[in-house]
Automatic annotation (TrEMBL):
Pfam families per the UniProt record, alphabetical: ABC2_membrane (PF01061), ABC_tran (PF00005)
Protein name: ABC transporter domain-containing protein
Domain ABC transporter per the UniProt entry, residue ranges: 435-680
A single GO molecular function term of this UniProt record: ATP binding
Alphabetically ordered keywords of this record: ATP-binding, Membrane, Nucleotide-binding, Transmembrane, Transmembrane helix, Transport
SMART domains to which the protein is assigned, alphabetical: AAA
Chief location category: membrane
InterPro entries attached to this UniProt entry: AAA+_ATPase (IPR003593), ABC2_TM (IPR013525), ABC_transporter-like_ATP-bd (IPR003439), ABC_transporter-like_CS (IPR017871), ABCG_transporters (IPR050352), P-loop_NTPase (IPR027417)
Transmembrane segments: 71-93, 105-126, 147-173, 185-208, 215-235, 315-333
PROSITE patterns, sorted: ABC_TRANSPORTER_1 (PS00211), ABC_TRANSPORTER_2 (PS50893)
Domain of life where this protein originates: Eukaryota
PANTHER family assigned to the protein according to its UniProt record, in alphabetical order: ABC TRANSPORTER G FAMILY MEMBER 28 (PTHR48041), ATP-DEPENDENT PERMEASE-RELATED (PTHR48041:SF2)
Amino acid sequence: MVRAFAESEIESMNKASHADICGQRGSVSPRLISIDGEEVEAERVKRAASFGTQVKLLCGRLLRQMYRHPFLIYVHFISSFIVALGVGGIFWHSGSNQGGIQNRMGSLFFILLFLTLMSLSSLPVWKEDRLLFKTERASRVYGADAYFTSMLLFDLLPMRVLPPFFFGFFSYGMIGLNEGGEWNLLTFVFVLILTNIVATCLCMAVGAANRNVSAANMVASLFFLVSILFGGFLVNKDHIPWYARWVAYLSFMSHGYEALVVNEFVSNPLTFTLTESWSNSTTGGGQKLPNQVPVPGEKVLFTFGFHPYLAPWDVGFLIAQGFLFAFGCYVFLKASSGDAELFDGDYEEGSHGTDERVVEVDDFADASDRFLHRSSASMTSDVVESNGMFASAHESDVAFLEQSLLNVEGADDEVEDPCILTWVDVVCTLRSGRRVLNNVSGIAGPVNAVGVPSDVELTSAEHAADLFAILGPSGAGKTTLLDILAGRATRTHSIRGDIRVNGQPIVSSQIRRLSGYVTQDDVLPGTATVHEHLLFHAKLRLPSGTSSEAIRKRVCATMQILGIEKLADSFIGDQFQRGLSGGEKRRVSIATELLMSPGIMFLDEPTTGLDSTNAAKVVDILSSLGTMGTTVLLSIHQPRPDIFRLLDRVLVLSGEGSVVYSGPSALASAHFASMPFVTLPLADLHIADYMLDVVLKSSRSDV
């Protein structure tokens, strides 16, 4: 099959079209295709939102999430309030005798332990936030610096500062802790806040370093258990074995607990009593009962291995640990975000005399985690505003949207030609040596316009971009090919080939700016409404000079054309909050990328997880994009007949990652039927099922 297609007339037409495209050199803006990247970088800076704007919008979204998220409210605030009252009732008015000393120390340790363990509850929510950060960072919506700053200001601090105040307002007085003055109460709350922040920063660093929530929970729990064991309550600090003392020195629980205990017993106006040792004296007729020995609070500290002079050191060490864990979290975030400019592809001379492109791009995650990443739709040339966003089947809707785009401040009036994406002999090899793709070639875009003289007027159908689909059995490399074309391949892949836009070689960072990418799974903020989410992206990704009114019109136009205007005030929803259906979320994901009017749109199996009706609606939306100049490439497993009829061109991959067909969808059936070793299709078997059956059922030698 592979050889038959390579020798077919359709492949000859593809090669001729590719040669014509490279000869014309297309109409891509020179700034977009600049190899040195200087003009591209200047345009990117011009279009990027300022650091202050990014932080402001991110803080607003995190603040809304904080008071809308039921899990955060119940766990961190309501449960802390209930536990604070419960601890105060259980340890009510602890005395100054030995039992009271035990209760005081036990209550302090339990409060510290409770707040520390509560930090683990942030891992599931933090994981969702991190997935959202990675997808939006891949689209260059904002930077890692802005995200980290906003997270510290309006997520970490409020969530970790407010719960300790419940224990300061209620538990402190109910237990009868140090009444020496307001300074002791403030120190109590400060140490709780500081230790809570340290524990949370540790959890965030572990969560940023681990892609799996279960693994992150296990690692963080192990750290906490070791820190609790050497915290100074379960094991006397003076009796820790010499070979394990270094663990106690590193335990944030040890430093936090010692600071709390010192604050409780130093300068306490109460006089505490300890039990005197048993005496063997027979004076008075037999053994004596224990005597009560009055001691100051400092003596209590030394009895249990605590040292008052170490309290300032404990606080300083906690601050240092907090900065260290926060820095570790920041480093892991930067690493996971994959700074795009560091991984642009090089060009090497191939063995057969042609230019082969070696692509090593962002190391976002392994193959199982690839669905988390969305490529950039923030374009860096005039094509940004001119291509249009979406064309519905109704001309009035098209005119309305086109007019709304032209009214956006900063948009250019000149309309660019649609983008034609070509790739030749793309080879993908894993580090293990296994080839995923073998010499894959294809053309996506308005191929009918190629080779036509400039003075010849084209019809709208001939000038429109097309809908290109990548088909193949599971494991054929559909998503891998889509990621490579979108500049989203991972470092685990060694890639060679020639990839061009309108005949111009283009590097991975530039294709990400030129295109939009919709992932297979919709990674959206569940606590935001549809309008809030789209407005957030529009403010960050549209030109910096765009007015608020123009941004609002752009968002409203996008929602209206995609049919989600009635969902504007609906919450998107997540595992903690009910929201939109699968089809509605998919349309929101598409709208998020279409806000920037990308020249090329990539979609990874957009119909997966949707019922047949919603799947048809989504593909119908995508098929209409071509009339506004957007070239659409999608991977799809097995489209229905009504969906297949909407596809202009298809590429069929074999199970080994080779091309068995690439060309117009209307000619696919005739091509397969022309092969003598292929059984003719049944009358009621549609072409998509027929092609996949041929690929799957044919012997390896026939393929």
